[in-house]
Every structure is written in C-alpha cells, then in structure tokens.
Amino acid sequence: MRMGPGILLIVAFVVMLGISVRVRSRRKRGIALAAQWNHLQQQRGRRGSGDLLHVTQVYQHARRGSKALITWCDTGHHQDAWFWDWHVPSGAYLLVNASSGYGPHNKNANVLYVHPTQVTTWVPAQAPIAAQRQTG
Q1: Each residue's pLDDT tens digit, 111-131
Q2: b/e for 108-120, b at 16 or more Cβ within 10 A?
C-alpha cells in the first residue's frame, strides 16, 4: 500500500511538532533550574542563610529519613549526614543551618543531623549545570 504525499506531509508535520515541543520543554526546564541555582547563590550571600553542601551519595533511605555522604562546598570536607523526615535526592545542593553529633548506628562521632526546618533552600543536581549553560 502506497502513501500519498499528503499523508507523508502530515506525518512529517506531527514528528516535527513533537520534536519542537520536547526541545521547548527542555529549554524551559533549563531556564527554571538556572533560576533556582541563582536564587540559591543569592540566599547564600545573606547572613545566617547557612552553609552550602552537596549530597554526594545517598546510601540508605529509611522510614524516617536518609543517610548520605555529603561534601561541604567551601572546604571540600566529606561527612556522613542524617536527613530527618526527608528522602534527600542524591546530587542535590542544600543551604543548611545544622549541627553535628554522635551517630550511634555507625559509631561516628561527627554525623551532620539535618531537620527539614534547617534547610534554607535546595536545588537538584542539574541546577548548577543549567546555570552554567545559561551564562556560557
């Protein structure tokens, strides 16, 4: 069965429309992520906003929170962390006002304990990359 030129044109139009919508959605998401990163950086500059950390790896999701390995962005220091009542996404960047204490499960004297109310703001892992694309 042969398709007429009209049907081929309709199929080509539908395919191009789908590609256009996908590219536009990706572009909008990139702009939104860049704005989130810029907002985090503005918050970071304010007194009392907290310190910036990067969630390097989430190694356990529990009923009441997440255990993760974090890296402090200003020092590069690595630390275990417990995020109360939150399944924090791996790769996220957070501004926090939190404190460290003893971790009885791993017998670690220096676990960062983070309650959701101690998070000033956070962005997903893709945000700094999107911001870099916007400026570059």
Answers
A1: 999 999 999 999 999 999 999
A2: eeebbbbbeebbb
User: Quick one: which H or E segment has residue 123?
Assistant: strand 119-123
Residue 122 CA to residue 43 CA, distance in Å, equals 10
CA–CA separation, 120 and 28 (whole Å): 25
CA–CA dist 80, 110 (Å, integer): 7
Report how far apart the first and last C-alpha atoms of the chain are (Å, whole number). Answer: 50
Q: Is 36 helix (H, G, I), strand (E, B) or coil?
A: helix
Tell which phi-psi region holds residue 48, choosing left (phi > 0), alpha (psi between -120 and 50) or beta.
Answer: left
Token pair for 123: 């962005």
